[in-house]
Amino acid sequence: MRKEVVGPSQLFSMIVLFEFGTALVVPIGLESGRAVWLSILMALPGGVVLYLIYNDLYRQFPGLTISGYTQKILGKAIGWPLSLLYIPVLLFNSSRNLREAGDLLISASYDRTPILIITSIMVIAVMFILNKGIEVYARTAEIYFWIMMIMGVICNFVVIAAGLVDFKHLFPLQIKDLRDALSSAYPSIWIFPFGELVCVTTILPFFSKVNKAKRVGVTAVILSGLLLTITHMVEISVLGEDMYSRAAFPIYTTITLVNVANFIQRLDALVILTLIIGVFFKMSIYSFAATVITADLFKVKDYRRVVVPVCVVVLFCSFVSAENYSSHLNEGKEFLKYILPVLCAYIPMFLFVVHHIRKRFGWYD
Predict the structure, then answer these.
(1) pLDDT-derived band at 2, boundaries 50, 70, 90
(2) CA-to-CA distance for 275 and 249, rounded, in angstroms?
């Protein structure tokens, strides 16, 4: 079988779409109030540093995923069970993205459609694309990247043209706002969405040009961070701090207010499409990472044989994880605070330090 490869522009597109995911739609960094856009900018350098760590480990162990080089660095006795911890976390996060998509679609347009039907359709689409392989998936991401960019330009243009933007909701910023922005940036926004890029460690072994992984990834992280900053800045400038914090989906609330000359209005379909695309790519990359790590740990030659079981578990978890959307959000806060930082940041940083110590003193066999 021909080895699947991912090109630079395809990796770039996947990272940007993954970073967008639900971060475009749901409110983030609520602790920082009106300075949430500043929190994203503050967290961006930390996100770049995390990617550089992922990339360095990839360069040191080309062809291996995070589960592979964890066992190389720490030994199989420690590395195998530690790698195993990633699987339930990846599955749970994938199911959370699926749940958020289902809830928005039901609250926006499909209030009479059972959530099982909506989420099942999305899961079937993910099964289909992952069974086609990472190369086909990457080409699909390359196409949808430009669709997302075009929709983003249209949405921001009509919001500004409608005269909804009020910079009084953004400024002035006081010292307290800056402190709140920093506390919100680390670790909250640093991990969501930037730290979630730990999933990319399962994609990098398929990258065709090793020397370009650093430049492509860093550029993608910076671009996605800046676009997220602009998006949430526009949302707050339109809705204000209070409404932004209370809205389940601020971008949807913002776009429903658009009315240009009583002609251009009802553009919420663009937001729904944005959510569907973002969740599809974020959920599928989470599912892909879970399948690749599972295949690696349990010696399955073709990761595609694991796709269906993984996606079925994701669908099941999206129902049992929380009773309602409020519980879903509260559960997510605890998960983001205590579990994600360990797997997305602390373990990769620990692996980075241990590897370079062992390499420096020649402690590898």
Answers:
(1) low
(2) 10
